[in-house]
Amino acid sequence: MNKLAPTFVVLVIGLIMAIAVGDMPPFGALNSPASSYLSPYYIKEAYDVAGVHNIVTAVLAYWRGYDTFGEVTVIFTAGIAVMALLGRE
Amino acid sequence: MIWVLDILLLILLPLTAIVVVRSRDLMVAAIVYSIYSFDMAIIYTQLNAPDVGLAEAAVGAGATTILFLIAITKTERMEE
Amino acid sequence: MNLSFYLQHYNYWICVSLFMIGIYTMIAKKNIIKKFMGLNIVDTSIFLFFISMGDKRNAAAPILHAENEIIVNNYVNPLPSVIILTAIVVALGLTATALSFAVKIYEEYGTLNSEKIERLW
């Protein structure tokens, strides 16, 4: 019983996710909700607003600059935690 | 014919993941995890996201594997 | 539910199987470094799910070629790439902190087996 419990939990999770995958749009569809709602604005306006050819870099550094700053804060906190745990005085 | 390569790379992912789960030597598991992560970087580049592919190849296949190897060297190697 | 339904979603089925393998590793294995490897596999499967959602058929990478007119369907969706670039770096910080905790636990208790650690604690 104790050996079969993880397999049972994993199969239940996989069944739930399989039901969810059945409602996804087909792979590579041009008119899926992710591709038709918000992203055409960024693709059209990225070069005029930010002046960078790479759209990913433009969105990461121009529109979401505070998000990237928070990411730097997360890495700094992780480094401080590793130093506090393993460093010698 | 590029979809044959795509299918082969995608089938390699669960195989390497199962090897990571099943091996009792943690050093073998860390090296096979590096193969898994580099395969994932190739798949990202093939799905037209080259920035994510570069970041995954540097962070996932490089830095995470080195962190696992350092931790295994400081503790015990074989899983009981 | 014919064959083309399964062939249209093959990336998503790979994501589901990787998620199941990672969750099984985190539940069933006793070694905590092996648990962290399962956590990384779960992370990577969710990244593959996001990147698969942003792909378009017959499109190029989101780098603008020239100054001429921009056709939206010629470039893939750039927003999942931005989210995942942040998430990969956060996963690296999570792994570094967790492994330093594992090294400290091994120095204190002399074992990495989670059941033995619970008994000693």
From TrEMBL, chain A:
The protein, known as? Multisubunit Na+/H+ antiporter MnhB subunit
Organism of this sequence: Methanohalarchaeum thermophilum
Which keywords appear in this protein's UniProt record, sorted alphabetically?
Membrane, Transmembrane, Transmembrane helix
User: Which positions fall inside the MrpA C-terminal/MbhE domain?
Assistant: 14-88
Which segments cross the bilayer?
69-87
Is Cell membrane set as a keyword in this record?
no
Automatic annotation (TrEMBL), chain B:
* Cellular component terms (Gene Ontology): plasma membrane
Question: How does the record say this protein sits in the membrane?
Answer: Multi-pass membrane protein
Print the keywords alphabetically: Cell membrane, Membrane, Transmembrane, Transmembrane helix
User: Matching Pfam families, A to Z?
Assistant: MbhD (PF13244)
- Does the keyword section mention RNA-binding? no
InterPro entries (UniProt xref): MrpA_C/MbhD (IPR025383), Nuo/plastoQ_OxRdtase_6_NuoJ (IPR042106)
Q: What is the superkingdom listed in this entry's lineage?
A: Archaea
Q: Would the keyword Transmembrane turn up in this protein's UniProt record? A: yes
Residue span(s) of domain MrpA C-terminal/MbhD? 11-77
Q: What residue ranges are annotated as transmembrane? A: 27-45, 52-72
Compartments where found: Cell membrane
Instruction: Specify where it is mainly localized.
Output: membrane
Designated name of the protein:
Subunit of the Multisubunit Na+/H+ antiporter
